[in-house]
Amino acid sequence: MTPDETLLDGDFADTEIDASLSSVLRLTETGLPVDSGPDIMDMLSDSELARLVAAGRETAYKPGAFFFRQGDTHDGIHFIRSGRVRSYYTSPSGREITLAYWPKGHFVGAPQILGGGEHMWSSVAVEATTGLWLPGAVLRQLIRETPNLAIALIEGLTYKSMCYTALLQIMGTQSKTARLGHLLLTLASPVPDGANSAPVRQHFTQEELANLIGSTRQSISTSLDKFEKQRLIAREGDAIRILDVAGLRDLCD
Mean pLDDT, to the nearest integer, of 143-154? Predict the structure, then answer.
């Protein structure tokens, strides 16, 4: 099956909204900025990258277009050349949990990168995104001929396994309130020396926040109300400012 491809057609005044964050976005248990992980294409030489591009097929996706859907026949991997992609799992009951938002330099289509079976989750463009699709058979041959590509893919898979293992541990050991607090801290802009307040860099709906921490919109609403009453955050629509970074961290730890 080929990719689902479409052509591209006051207190909050200093909130920085970055629609194309360059780092991986995922849930952490520390509330610290996320290591962006390896940039696969950056690890290749110019000639190796040219060979990869020549062997693949360049694609472009509008926001909301799927690279693949959970249950689709697995047909290879997609390198992200620009934009951002959300990977998420849908339970039999219809509940979604976001695994991560992947930026440029990463790939989607793990873990069976050489094809076969079915996709275990979905990956969808959240903004205008370009990719490079490599069918499993083509990728297998390139790996045989390009050891550096094999090393890059192993590092990419290692990083993904660490992300998903951490997500599983967090879900099993932290309350929903703590998970939300850590997520807001992860999304916050760096706190200047001597300051204790920071805007959340990107607006998410309550549904999107719920999907990121494995919760419900109602639970998110309750926790945000609690944070606001404790003067830990302030809200204006979907925009959130952390008023007391140290206090929110203490509450979650």
Answer: 95
